[in-house]
Amino acid sequence: MLHISIIKDEESALDHFSLSSCQKTKDDLYICPICPLPRFGRRESSSKGLSQVCLIKHLRDHFDSPKSLIVKGYKITACFQPCIQNYDAKKWHYHCPFCPDSYTTKVLIKNHILVCQGYVGSTHKSAENLVMNTSTPVGSQRISLFGSRGLNSSFGGQFTAVSRSKNSSQNESLLGFSPLPLTPASSSVVKTVENFTPEKLEFEALEKEDAKAVIQGYLKTADSSTYENVFKSFSTMEDKAGILLWIKELTNCAANLDRKADKLILAFLKLPLFSCDELGKATSSFIQTLVGYHNYFSYHVLKTLFNHLLPALNEDNDDLLISAGSLSADEESTYNSVLSAILLINSDIPLTQNNLLLLASKSMPYLNQHVHIHAVYARNLLRLAESLPHLRVAVLEVIISNMITIDVHAPRLELLEEECEDDVDSNDEEDMFNMEVDDTGREQTENTPLDSCQVPRAMTHKVGNTLDVLMCIMFQYIHDVCHGIKELSLPVHLKSVPEAQNTKLCHPGSESISKFSVKRPDGGCECGGTQQSVSTLKALYNDMKLIFSNTILRTHASAHVQFLLFYLISMRPGLLPFFLDFLINNKFRDPQVAPCIRKNAMAYVGSLLARGKFVTFLEMHTCLKSICDWCDDYLDNQEKIPERYYEDLSLHWPFYHACQTLFYIFTFRYLEYTANKKALAMARSLNLERFVHSRLNPLNICSPPIVKNFVAVAHHFQIAYCHTVMERNKRLGIPAARTDAYVEVKPAVLESLFPFDPYLLQRSKLYIQNHYREFEGLPEDIADDMMEDTCVSVGTPISPEYNDTAFGVSPGFMRFSEDNNL
């Protein structure tokens, strides 16, 4: 005989009880047979009892409450009677329909049914089929409190009690009847299990009514415990049928899921729902329906989806340091499903694009996290950028901004200390010009085909290795977009040598530009531009130029991220004049632009013209001529204002930066200017001697290594005679012996920072090494011509009265004396 808290699924509570069998109070009101008297008095507004109509409603609420559960064939509600030991009126328990056992939670009673039927150790599905196919209740009799069924008319009978508390006799005397109608102890059905822990056993699937009951119960009570155990069982993703039922129920009641249900929804979406295509499509449909009803959830759902774009990681796997960013087919499918859900939200609610960009930036992994996390997230954002063309600039800016943050935390000095220990003691001049030239090493790196590259290795510098991988991914992205490849391919450092050899398109690190060729192909890659998509390349250039202006150009001491523009222009050298015009005319010459940006713009011009192999001699000379014309105009204007025509870095800093760029480029590419008489005449036409001998004295302000090499080259080829100016500057730096104290004044010197200095990242160097020009050093005859007394003395103290004294009678010093007398 079934317990009073158990009824058949097909019958209602009214069919299960008889009003004549319910205990009545003195006021002729009914008392619930399931609730004990103390709890019954607290649950209702009246502690005296219920009317007939209220009792019927009260009994229905018992079996329809979230505390009830359904096993196919039976509906079990929570029992509040003192049937167990350590009875507490505030807690409830459940009775098994097949044996006298009882348990305190829904999970335990479900697990017990599997054990009770002897299916411990069986597969969950077989146990589920047994429970779901059970249609005949155990025992030939059951309690019915409604006499129309012709069954017992009282609570008395032959029942077997499993356990009773000390308060059961007291409660029985208060109610006037026995509140424990239990199942008879049938030996053919009841099975005892010793030393069994049922917490680890769970059902494989939930019924539709269970999901609906949990959802409705949470909406009423806001108790997270109603779904935590269910979601915990779903985390293993073994019960896909149960998860699909939950998704279906959540979709059906999406209109009723207001802000009170946010914890339930977010907890459910944190499950790995996109690991299966079927679940991913159902989840995307639910998300689309949910945000359509309630825009409030769009931000929180997007935040959860972006967290799904971060991979689960086993940091003990050292292979991920080398193959960072590589994904299996299942992982690719999972991330594509997540991205599809993000695109659905953006298409249905266009106003979410601000939240989308904000969350894309907030979800970015921290710079010290594993390189694989950075690589996978960056590739996912690149896929998102290609799927949202109107947001591509913003998404790329999020990626590049993160790379800049990583770049500034991986300074050149640290990379050199960990990767190139032999070059730690190199001075600033060697770092800038790489004066010690290794012809053998250059022959090995120059025109290196991709199939001869060594096996890539991870850098020992953690942050540097992360930046190296991200640069590889971005280089490959630029190459693919320039060639019209819609599906992003793996970077070169993730491909094996045979795969790279079988690549149909040109190799990303290949070169087709001769060293001094004036005529060149349209493209700086092996295909010569024939396989490039000009429209997509121009669109990408415009996007990257905007990002460069907003982020890269504003960053001080960035070492590697700017090479993205370097590589993009090398892919299509025809873009170079447009980029130089942007830097010179739109940035440097515009007085309304911030000084730091104007300085950086001129530094980019000088470094790009000096380092790019794709920059022809005519293009370089045209750009230098433009800068010289500006310097000539500047000097002409200053000569009209004598009171300002003197050496002062804070006053004439644009002129000094332009001169330093001229000296740097001319020194770097002097071989082309001295190759023949025509080229030498072009060098003299720049009129560099005027700048050297001007009263602004750029040789004393510009960086000493640049000045030293420029003076040597200019003197050897008779481009400009600089020794008199150098001698004057040297004498101004001689300290004087004084009896009184004086303040030491260090001469102001420009910083010699050029953006495209030697590239130090190991694997991503493959993309730019064949487009990059190394400094070939000065020949011995030029170096021998440099006298020791022409070297610049930097950092010596200067007496305040030294500027008022002229030394010697040479025209240079006389001019200096005249300047001081102004």
General description of the model:
This is RNA polymerase I-specific transcription initiation factor RRN3. Pfam families: RRN3 (PF05327). Belongs to the RRN3 family. GO terms for molecular function: RNA polymerase I core binding; RNA polymerase I general transcription initiation factor activity. The protein is mainly α. It is built from 35 helices and 5 strands. The chain has a 3-stranded antiparallel sheet with strand order 1-3-2, with helices on one face. Strands 4-5 form a two-stranded antiparallel sheet. Strand 4 and strand 5 form a beta hairpin. Helix 27 runs antiparallel to helix 28. The longest helix is centred in the last third of the chain and has 23 residues. The relative contact order is 0.05.
Offer a few descriptive terms.
822 residues; mainly alpha; three-stranded antiparallel sheet
**Strand pairing plus helix content: what structural class?**
mainly alpha
What is the strand content? under 5%
Query: What is the topology, as strand order, of the major beta sheet?
Result: 1-3-2
- Which overall shape is indicated by the principal axes computed on the Cα atoms? elongated
What integer is the average pLDDT? 74
Low-confidence stretches: 38-46, 120-209, 422-429, 435-453, 496-505, 511-522, 787-822
Helix content: 40-55%
Q: What separation lies between the terminal Cα atoms? A: 118 Å
Radius of gyration: 41 Å
**How would a crystallographer describe the biggest sheet?**
3 strands, antiparallel
What is the number of strand segments? 5
